[in-house]
Amino acid sequence: MAMLVGVRILVVEDEALVALMVEDALRDAGAEVLCAYTVEEALRLLGGEEGAGLDAAVLDLSLAGEGAAPVAEALRKRGIPFLIATGYGDAQQNAAGGATAGAPVLCKPFEPEALVATIATLVAPDRQPLRTGT
């Protein structure tokens, strides 16, 4: 499942086990992964050399009780597409406001395959999913 070879992805997630699962799934798909566990760390990565050349991001909306809207806004300003990974559903995304409008949402728990497929669509929106059998 090397759908993401050459793709650089920022994962912003404060739950260690979830972050590890997301990171493993993306690496297994061939992606290079950077992780941030707080809003401050994510903004620092985005503002530094490490954040250059990012292709996409996975963003949890609640990071240790802090809203992730500033990270979503920074991603939008840089033109980096992102998806929302949340266990709280639409209410939390609505609370984040316009910063997350239009971003795809994966509700936790989600399958690694769904994560990889959604990221693949974000980085190559005109790409059609592979079909098997006819």
UniProtKB/TrEMBL annotation:
Boundaries of every Response regulatory domain copy: 8-123
| GO terms of biological process kind | phosphorelay signal transduction system
- 4-aspartylphosphate found at: 60
Query: Does the entry feature the keyword Phosphoprotein, yes or no?
Result: yes
Write down the superkingdom of origin. Bacteria
One family name in Pfam for this protein? Response_reg
Q: Which UniProt keywords apply?
A: Phosphoprotein
The protein's name in its UniProt record: Response regulator
